[in-house]
Amino acid sequence: MRGRKPRIETSGEHLRRLDRRHMANVLENLERCAGELHGQCHERLRRRRQIVRAAEQVHAACGIATQLLERLSFSIEATQRLARKGKRRLGIGFVPSSFYGQLPTLVRRLRQIDALEIVLQEMTSVQQVAALHSGQIDIGFGRIWLDGPGVRQEVLFEEPVLAALPARHPLVGTRPSIERLAEEPLIVYPARPRPSYADVVLGMFHQRGLHIEVLQETNELQTAIGLVACEMGITLVPRTVRRLVREDVVYEGISTAGLSSPLIMCLRHDDKHDPVMASVLEHVYALIELRKRGKF
């Protein structure tokens, strides 16, 4: 070390070293701030998405509520008009498939009662329960069992299920099994609200451990039959639907035992002692008895 002079740092070098340290601290602080900002932005974005989803759900719920209020308002106005005429309004809710059975005959008979004004409203089984609570309907005919307070249900009869096939389908005339039908693209209805008859049909396959391809879900029975006519797939329908005649659709029996769909009547518990509803039920049970005798 002898002979070497100690190095004396100049003021310029000292400043540059301080600048480097300062810049390193600045960069470190910037990185930390950037990380915090990124986290805050991510959290704000997540919250914003939650708010948007909540707003969409509220908007949808408001739309449904508005429709229900409009229907209820219409029912109230109709009831007030009928009251001025000295008539009682009888609201009947029904799923489309029931209209191909005894329901038209029931309506014709009830319309002969001068004191009644019959109002028919197509709706799913789920919607019927809500409509009974609101007073929009007084009796409903559906396809699925729904437990609920204030409403009683009764299975009127079990109806065999048929396969609706395109007229040129190779299964026409063969009485296929449910296992064979599982190999075909399936069309189910109604798509919503759920649960619905669509779940009844899907359950027929799932209970037997069968995998199926659901080609399309639609809300209307007529649309499902139209898609079958287009040769896009098949669908399963209660037997009375075969009265919906099309030359390009064939209703084929299913060889598998135990495939049926119930027709379920639903009423308000509070109406059990209502003399008008008692008269309506007399007509209902009379038609069911005729059906048992093979008259329908």
Apparent shape: flat
Note the beta-strand portion: 15-25%
Specify the CATH architecture of the largest domain: 3-Layer(aba) Sandwich
For the record, the CATH class of the largest domain is Alpha Beta
Q: Helix segment count? A: 7
Given as residue ranges, the uncertain stretches (5+ residues, pLDDT < 50) are: none
Mean pLDDT: 85
Q: Considering DSSP H and I runs of 4 or more, what fraction of the residues is helical?
A: 40-55%
In whole angstroms, how far apart are the ends? Answer: 121 Å
Count of individual beta strands: 9
Secondary-structure element series: HEHEHEEHEHEHEEEH
Organism: Halotalea alkalilenta
Protein name: LysR substrate-binding domain-containing protein
Domain LysR substrate-binding: 87-284
Family: Belongs to the LysR transcriptional regulatory family.
Descriptive report:
This protein is an alpha/beta fold and about 300 residues long. The protein folds into 2 domains: about 10-85; about 85-290, D-Maltodextrin-Binding Protein, domain 2 (3-Layer(aba) Sandwich). About 45% of the residues lie in helices and about 20% in strands. The chain is built from 7 helices and 9 strands. It has helices spanning about 10-85, 105-110, 125-135, 180, 195-205, 220-230, 275-290; strands at about 90-95, 115-120, 140, 150-165, 185-190, 215, 235-240, 250, 260-270. Strands 1, 2, 3, 4, 7, 8 and 9 form a 7-stranded mixed β-sheet that branches. Strands 5-6 form a two-stranded parallel ribbon. Strand 1 (about 90-95), helix 2 and strand 2 (about 115-120) form a beta-alpha-beta unit. The longest helix is centred in the first third of the chain and has 75 residues, at about 10-85. The protein is flat. It starts with 10 loop residues before the first helix and ends with a helix.
